[in-house]
Design goal:
Largest sheet: 6 strands, parallel
Keywords: Hydrolase
CATH class of the largest domain: Alpha Beta
CATH topology of the largest domain: Rossmann fold
CATH superfamily of the largest domain: HAD superfamily/HAD-like
Protein name: (S)-2-haloacid dehalogenase
Strand content: 5-15%
Strand order of the largest sheet: 3-2-1-4-5-6
Function: Catalyzes the hydrolytic dehalogenation of small (S)-2-haloalkanoic acids to yield the corresponding (R)-2-hydroxyalkanoic acids.
Order of helices and strands: EHHHHHHEHEHEHEEH
Enzyme class: hydrolase
Structural class: alpha/beta
Low-confidence stretches: 229-243
Number of helices: 10
Radius of gyration: 18 Å
GO molecular function: (S)-2-haloacid dehalogenase activity
Number of strands: 6
Length: about 240
Amino acid sequence: MSTQHLDGIKACVFDAYGTLFDFNSAALAASDEIGENWQRLSELWRQKQLQYTWLRGLASRHADFWQVTGEALDFALNTLGIDRPGLRERLMDLYLHLGCYPEVPETLHRLQAEGMRLAILSNGTPAMLAAVVHHSGLENVFDAVLSVEEVGVFKPHPAVYALACERLQLAPTAICFLSSNAWDAYSAKASGLRVLWCNRFGQVRERIPETPDGEIKDLSALPDAVSSPVCGREAMGESPTRL
C-alpha cells in the first residue's frame, strides 16, 4: 500500500461517528442486556439515525442530533421487539461514552506534534461531542470541535463543509477531510475540500458525483499522506492518490 503526499494541507478535519469514534461500542457495552441481537440493533440504530438526518434536511425540519439519535434508537428497539426497563437510557448514555478506534490517539498526537491543525466536523451536538472527546482523553488535541448546530442543517449540506473553512480560516484545498462515511467523503469533495475516505468497513466506491483524493483503510496511514518537511505551505493543486 503506497503512501503519497497530498501537498499543501494545513489542517485535517475529521468526521466523528464511525471515523474517530466507534458507534458500535454502545450496543456492544450493553450486549449483556440486548443479547445476540446487539449487532443488528447497532446497525439499525445507525441506519435510521442517518436516514432521519437526511429526511429532516430535505424537509427543512431540523432537530438536533441528540433527539434524532433517540428517535432512531426507539425505532430500532421497537423493530427488534426489545423492551427492557432502563435499556434506552443506558444506551443513550453509552453514546456519550463511545470508544475511539485503536489507532486514533497515536495518529492524532503524531499529527499534532508535526504541527498539523486538527478539528472535528460532525452532526453531533456540542454537548455530545464534548462528552465523547473527553471520554477518549482528546480534549487537548483539537483546535476546533465543530457542530452542524452552528449552521442549523445536517450533512451533506454544503454549509456544513463551508463551516470548517470559515472557522479555520483556510481555503478548501488546504483542508484534508476524513470520513468513514462514503456519502460524507464524496459530499465534502463536492464542496471543494481535499478528501481521504477512511474506508474502515471495506465498502465499494459510490456511484455519485465527485471522487475523494484517496482512500485509506484506517487513520494510521494519514500522517504519511499529509505531512511534509514544510508544514502549512500553500496547496499547489490536487493529485488523486490511493493509499
